[in-house]
Write a structure and sequence with these properties.
Blueprint: H1 2-11, H2 14-43, H3 51-61, H4 73-106, H5 118-131, H6 141-161, E1 162-163, E2 166-167, H7 169-193, H8 196-207, H9 215-231, H10 236-242, H11 246-251, H12 256-278, H13 284-296, H14 300-324, H15 333-356
Antiparallel strand pairs: 1-2
């Protein structure tokens, strides 16, 4: 009888312990993958730099000893490689975290930031700036127009889907679909009136790339990304309650409408900032949070930061692939993520349908 009574006491903490251990191990693994990706990406290219020289240069910059890379290597490392890597970290973390927030808000693993029109709206702003040759903000014109148009589009989607002081998920999604369609039509109109050089610039921007990375661009997107990434985990518990359904969440003290508004603003900041400096990079916000959820579970307090780390790692490694797979040419980052993400999305659709026994 003593053994039988003792068994439940020892077995009970096993599940909570596992729920804490798995996210921690996944976080360590993703952080290691990101750190390795940063070093390998900084080392690889037309001007290879040994890893020990990179570590020595970092130590020199931090005042911890070491020495700079000889010749032009120091300039290549800090002004070209590291600026591109850091921008990739910010873009990947922002898109993946925004995707996790969207999936939590809609209660659907198939949701992603583009659902509410921020990506297509930003594309309209950038294409408009390119097609009409706007230069009022110098080199920042395209990014500024993209970010502003993305925020305006999200505000329009939210306003159009709001009725009687409330927004329903279905109405929000359908409004986003309609606005995305309108944005596609506007992009087509701008392309129709653009000349060949402008069409080339528009096409390259829509493909997504980190090739234009500079430290001023990083400093511009850093505050927005930092604010969004810092605020997102604070909504983890309320997203967990929202997963029970809107009515149970309200009974448990969650102001669903205010929560939805706050999440839309954070998603708009994260996605608008990322798209403004990198162009359209698809599937990061869809694929990464879902993969993290499959391993670490649905709890948003772990899912949101792990998705950010995972998204940063995926973009850094994907950008390395774009620079090396077809060297000396460079594959646009958005094309590579779409080539990998589309089959995963198709598998996800079939998996969801099979588990639910159909869509009805």
């Amino acid at each position: 009888m003593t053994v039988t009574a003792a068994e439940p006491e020892t077995a009970a903490p096993a599940a909570p312990a596992r729920r804490r251990t798995v996210p921690a191990l996944l976080g360590l693994g993703l952080t290691a993958a990101l750190a390795l990706g940063v070093l390998v990406s900084a080392s690889s290219g037309a001007f290879p730099i040994p890893l020990d020289d990179i570590v020595s240069s970092i130590g020199h910059r931090l005042g911890l000893g070491g020495s700079p890379v000889e010749g032009t290597g120091e300039s290549v490392l800090w002004h070209i490689r590291f600026s591109r890597v850091v921008l990739g970290v910010l873009v990947g973390a922002s898109l993946a975290c925004a995707g996790a927030l969207m999936q939590g808000m809609f209660g659907n693993p198939l949701a992603e930031p583009g659902v509410i029109g921020v990506s297509s709206g930003a594309a309209v702003g950038a294409v408009c700036a390119i097609a009409f040759g706007f230069t009022f903000a110098g080199n920042w014109t395209i990014s500024l127009c993209a970010f502003a148009a993305g925020l305006v589009t999200v505000a329009a989607v939210y306003a159009l889907s709001r009725s009687g002081g409330r927004t329903e998920v279905v109405t929000l999604v359908l409004t986003g679909v309609a606005v995305n369609g309108l944005a596609g039509a506007l992009i087509g109109v701008f392309i129709f009136y653009a000349d060949n050089d402008e069409i080339t610039a528009i096409t390259f921007w829509q493909m997504g790339s980190l090739s234009q990375a500079t430290w001023p661009k990083i400093l511009a997107v850093l505050p927005l990304a930092a604010i969004g990434l810092a605020l997102a985990p604070a909504y983890g518990r309320r997203l967990d309650l929202l997963a029970l359904g809107e009515r149970p969440a309200r009974h448990l003290g969650v102001d669903v409408e205010r929560l939805r508004l706050h999440l839309i603003v954070i998603v708009a900041l994260l996605t608008g900032a990322a798209v403004a400096v990198s162009g359209v990079i698809g599937f990061i916000g869809l694929v990464v949070p879902h993969l993290v959820r499959m391993v670490a579970g649905p709890g948003h307090r772990a899912l949101l930061p792990l998705s950010a780390i995972g998204g940063a790692a995926v973009v850094v490694w994907a950008d390395l692939a774009t620079r090396t797979l077809a060297a000396p040419a460079e594959i646009p980052l958005g094309i590579l993520t779409a080539l990998v993400g589309s089959p995963f999305f198709f598998w996800l659709l079939r998996r969801t349908r099979r588990r639910q026994g159909g869509w009805a």
